[in-house]
Write a structure and sequence with these properties.
Order of helices and strands: EHEEEHEHEEE
Largest sheet: 8 strands, mixed
CATH superfamily: 2,3-Dihydroxybiphenyl 1,2-Dioxygenase, domain 1
CATH architecture: Roll
Number of strands: 8
Radius of gyration: 15 Å
Distance between the termini: 13 Å
Strand order of the largest sheet: 2-3-4-1-5-8-7-6
Bound molecules: carboxymethyldethia coenzyme *A
Helix content: 10-25%
Length: 136
């Protein structure tokens, strides 16, 4: 497996609008993409080769809802871009790493994604992403 870069840091927020305003008004950054995905409102803010991904629950049942209730706002996950997500997932499985997604699936921003379980990664929710969703 080749990990190319930190693709993004996922940050769980209570109010996406207010968080976006902080990043664009108080910091010299821009929101380049927003979408609604799996019960969350999401905004991407590029910083160099990486991005901050802001995530606000809107459905009352998304992955960030429980996180914010338990921990408040804050860093939710770290995403690594890999060159071949199918090979990466197979390699992690072979090493016995507990995965949330045993098969890569469609994630936000049109990426192929697979999450590792935070209990297998020293408490950090880690996501593998690959921009192309084509199987290899
Ligand atoms: N980072 C670190 N640990 C986390 C965590 C996170 N983001 N979310 C949950 N945990 C920990 C909890 O603290 C808890 O630990 P304890 O048992 O020690 O208390 C344990 O994992 C179980 O957590 P939970 O609150 O009971 O929540 P669930 O098990 O129902 O769900 C998780 C947790 C990670 C399996 C689920 O959120 C998930 O499947 N996440 C993957 C999808 C996702 O996060 N999508 C949002 C991002 C969208 C994108 O970028 O594509």
């Amino acid at each position: 497996m080749k990990i190319k870069r930190i693709a993004h840091l996922g940050v769980a927020v209570k109010d996406l609008e207010s968080a976006m305003n902080f990043f664009t008004d108080s910091l010299p950054l821009e929101v380049t993409h927003t979408e609604e995905f799996q019960g969350m409102k999401i905004a991407f803010i590029p910083i160099g080769d990486s991005s901050v991904e802001l995530l606000q629950d809107v459905s009352g049942a998304s992955a960030v809802k429980k996180f914010v209730e338990k921990n408040g706002e804050g860093v939710h996950h770290i995403a690594y871009e890999v060159d071949n997500i199918y090979e990466a997932v197979a390699e992690l499985k072979a090493k016995g790493i507990k995965l949330i997604d045993e098969t890569p699936r469609q994630g936000a921003h049109g990426m192929s994604v697979a999450f590792m379980h935070p209990k297998a990664t020293h408490g950090i929710l880690m996501e593998l992403v690959q921009p192309s969703s084509e199987p290899h």
